[in-house]
Amino acid sequence: MAITSNVNSEYHAAISRLLSLADFERKSRANDPPDFHLKRIERLLAYLGNPHIGQKYVHVAGSKGKGSTSAMIAWSLAENGYTTGLFTSPSIHTITERFRINGEPISKKDFTSLVNDLWPAVEKVTADGDIGIVSVFELETAMAFCHFRNSKADISVIEVGLGGRLDSTNIITPLVSVITPISLDHIAVLGDTIELIAAEKAGIIKPGVPVVTSPQNPAALNVIKEKASSQNSTLIESQTKAEINSQNDLVLDGTKLSITIENEAYSPHLRLLGDHQIDNACTAITTVHELSKLGIKTKPYKTDTGIENTNWPARNQLLATSPTPVFVDGAHNDASAIALCKSVEKLFPYREQVIVILGTVRGHDPTVIARELAPLNPKIIVTESRHPKSLTHLELSEALGDSKIPVLATTATTQEALEQAKHLANSSDLILGTGSLFVAAELAELELGIEPELYPDIKLPPRP
Length: 464
Description:
It is a single chain. This protein folds into two domains: 17-309, Mur-like, catalytic domain (UDP-N-acetylmuramoyl-L-alanine:D-glutamate ligase), CATH 3.40.1190; 317-448, Protein-Tyrosine Phosphatase, Chain A (Alpha-Beta Complex), CATH 3.90.190. The chain contains 16 helices and 18 strands. The chain has helices at 2-19, 39-47, 66-79, 108-128, 136-150, 187-190, 194-201, 218-230, 238-241, 275-293, 300-309, 334-347, 366-372, 393-402, 414-424, 437-448; strands at 57-61, 84-87, 99-101, 104-105, 155-159, 176-179, 211-213, 235-237, 243-249, 255-261, 264-266, 269-270, 317-320, 326-328, 354-358, 379-382, 409-410, 430-434. Strands 4-3-2-5-1-6-7-8 form an eight-stranded mixed sheet, sandwiched between helices. The protein has a six-stranded mixed sheet with strand order 13-14-18-15-16-17. Helix 1 (2-19) packs parallel to helix 4. The longest helix is centred in the first third of the chain and has 21 residues, at 108-128. The two termini are 42 Å apart. Mean pLDDT is 92; it is low at 28-34 and 459-464.
């Protein structure tokens, strides 16, 4: 017991040390454009001996679906026998989830060691005094490269944090680049048009490196095509490359697919819910197929198993079936809310009323999300997550009120919101939690009895 207690104490101290850095995930960085560059990550990695060099990668950018797609690629490669790293953000329940080997999060002990071992290099960058202090995400990026090197990963899947061109992960040269669907998102940072955002995402395309793209808005696809052409990179459009021969919808048990790519037959049972996940699966399988041509040999039946075993919570996740179904999704913009609305209509066709627990973060327009869910005729319970960038329940309620979107109740916590929803609902209704991954995660913790990872000692700037 004492050993476990000591490990936990050191682990929380390491988290505190990490989160003491410039934390742009937990506060706005719209007013900090100088922080968008690769100089700091380049120097940090140089002080660490450039651990990213010599490793094999898949690099994934996009506005939506990039996490699910990254996970399906990683699970498929692991199932094919490769030691596979996976770096994603944000985490759902614990910070260790960001760094995975064959689906398993890094241990608390290894996480602690990484933070402490890399800290002298962080201090050296600060002491240089010419490019500011290392950010949380930059250190996490370096930690991922070191963890995958230490674990002797055969290949690692790296999800972009934000944007692409100036994201700290863009220090790598992958075997394949992947761009999932692009939509208006983080407009204060990436730009307010599809073309501008696509240009940032397409910034991950490297000279001569093939790029796999999901179905795209035509304006976004044109930008990607131009960038690929300028980099002499082969563009592979998954919607035409992966031919869907049949799909058998199993409602809440997912979808059985039959897919052909260049005479290779794939028959995955996709357990991630929602039609948009079919597109993500096709992108993932196309990527794995492309890797096989580049020397990372795979077998279709192994890839099928990897797709089936992919576990990616808080995205169209059914938490409970009785007495009232509880369903959550991290939809945070108009495109993801549209996809969520379609999923609910398909997965719960016999529902009566839909009680929506809605909480959002700053930087996203909550009225857009609420409007896209309007076809469900929802009863909205406003709430807020613990996340420091969460819009307060009062601000969210006011924003919806100003837009004439009716609010049934306003609650200060997700626990209060869930209690209210269960009080109002009957067995033929649906409780739907959405607006951010953080709201979805907290509802999952409450419903499934998962102990949350809290950071009470982290000093954060006051909310505006």
